[in-house]
Design brief:
Length: 495
């Protein structure tokens, strides 16, 4: 088996030979080619061994994906962003000099072709080349079996190679683009305004997570890549914008997993004069519609497990879920000491300052989350773990909040917003005082946000939806790294 260095050397030698013959290896003169897809309908009426006699010569460009060379002729497949077509090259039609140079082409080269359509004996639509042009000489060989690049590390690290050789990867990212476009369409059609808020913030807020830190030299101040846009979007509610949304990056200095990447895409939206119940209805409508638009059905399969996305979706309080799904005795959930003891017996380690609300949340994450396959809204989160959510008026120990789970994963988090500046200040201070050694809680509160609330924020509800996890669901992707073009990875140790 030839080594990589030998193959690279052979490529360089071919490139040198072509250059010596006057071939431009990296030209920019083959402009405005037709998409290959435009040619395909033209060949529908052709029969095997039939030629298109219209006199039309088509002009296409793309990457050579396979090559079969004979003495005086060759077949190769040309691929553009959407489609692929076979090309037939003949020495007697191209001329001896052009054909001799063509024989030094390789799989992976990017080339331009002009020619007419015909069908081979086997009925494959092909383009008979009358003109061949090198556009970009590939100096590295594609994987030997180009249709099967399966090494996960290579696929993530060299995404450009993955996109070249795996059409299913290209399909995932085309769907990702379409999902984001449809989300925008859905919200725009309902009167939401898309905005942009700071990516670098003096005080990280809106979520509990460890931020990335940087320093601004001119201002001589530390800044943090945002962990969430929430507090800035709610400032816009104070300013009078009643329906706002943002689709953009968040950054959290956390570990890597199939569900987590330190840089990820979130949709956050806020609606004045609404409650979390309104957002449950809107979310149910949006995601079920998205599923139908992307997959053609609301019945999908995720990693072999059937999922029904058709409304209405199940709605349970956290305590109902712990009772009905985890099988915990309701009497234990009503007894603070008992629920703390139960958490301990389940191996849950709680900070000394943690209360029963934190214990219930940890029990839910341990015993319930992964069992929520069909869409389920979990409501009534403890106030203790919801510093930005509005307290429930009937039971102040819980908040008007929900999280949406599908296939055992959190997809969305929402709540009726806390707009009482005095309550908000107290909760910020309590969270800081009780942070202990938790570096996910920032030690400085956002006083400007409290000041904004003092001017008056309308009653409102807001929500965040993880775009990456939503794309995973609708493309049947097992890992978040399969739906992020360039996921974060450890540095390479070799070439």
């Amino acid at each position: 088996m030839e080594t990589t260095s030998n193959l690279l050397q052979q490529r360089r030698e071919k490139a040198d030979s072509l250059a010596a013959a006057g071939v431009k290896l990296f030209s920019n003169t083959f402009n405005n080619p037709q998409p290959i897809g435009e040619l395909l309908p033209q060949g529908k009426t052709l029969v095997a061994e039939g030629h298109d006699d219209s006199g039309i010569h088509y002009r296409v460009a793309g990457r050579v994906m396979s090559m079969r060379k004979f003495g005086k002729a060759a077949f190769f497949h040309l691929q553009d962003v959407e489609d692929r077509i076979q090309v037939y090259a003949r020495r007697d039609l191209l001329g001896e000099e052009v054909f001799d140079n063509f024989k030094k082409w390789d799989v992976g080269d990017i080339v331009g072709i002009e020619g007419r359509l015909f069908k081979t004996k086997t009925g494959e639509l092909s383009l008979e080349a009358t003109t061949l042009q090198m556009i970009t000489k590939s100096l590295r060989p594609l994987p030997e079996k180009f249709h099967g690049l399966t090494d996960v590390e290579t696929r993530y690290r060299q995404r450009y190679l993955d996109l070249i050789v795996n059409p299913e990867t290209r399909d995932v990212f085309k769907k990702r683009v379409e999902i984001i476009r449809l989300v925008r369409e859905f919200l725009n059609n309902r009167g939401f305004m898309e905005v942009e808020t700071p990516m670098m913030q003096p005080v990280p807020g809106g979520a509990t997570a460890k931020p990335f830190k940087t320093h601004h030299n001119a201002l001589d101040m530390d800044l943090f890549l945002r962990i969430a846009p929430e507090l800035y979007l709610k400032r816009l509610l104070v300013g009078g914008f009643e329906k706002v949304f943002e689709i953009n990056r968040n950054f959290r200095n956390e570990g890597l997993s199939t569900r987590h990447n330190p840089e990820f895409t979130m949709l956050e939206f806020y609606q004045a004069y609404s409650t979390y119940h309104d957002l449950m209805d809107l979310t149910e409508e949006m995601i079920s519609w998205l599923a139908h638009e992307i997959t053609g059905s609301m019945d999908i399969t995720y990693q072999g497990v059937p999922v029904n996305l058709a409304p209405p979706w199940q709605r349970l309080t956290m305590e109902e879920a712990l009772e009905q799904i985890a099988g915990i005795d309701p009497a234990i959930l009503k007894d603070d000491a008992a629920v703390m003891a139960l958490a301990k017996t389940k191996g849950i380690e709680l900070q000394p300052e943690a209360g029963p609300g934190k214990a219930k949340t940890e029990l839910f994450e341990l015993l319930v989350e992964e069992r929520l396959i069909d869409p389920t809204f979990i409501t009534s989160y403890p106030t203790e773990v919801s510093p930005l959510a509005r307290r429930n008026e009937d039971d102040p120990s819980v908040t008007d909040r929900f999280e949406l789970f599908i296939t055992g994963r959190e997809i969305a988090n929402a709540f009726s917003e806390l707009n009482d500046p005095i309550d908000q200040l107290q909760r910020f201070q309590k969270q800081i005082n009780e942070r202990g050694d938790d570096d996910e809680v920032h030690p400085v509160l956002d006083r400007d946000y409290v000041r904004a609330l003092e001017y008056g924020m309308p009653s409102a509800a807001g929500e965040g939806i993880g775009i990456d996890r939503l794309v995973m669901l609708l493309t049947d992707a097992p890992s978040i790294r399969d739906v992020i073009l360039f996921p974060q990875l450890k540095p390479e140790t070799g070439e």
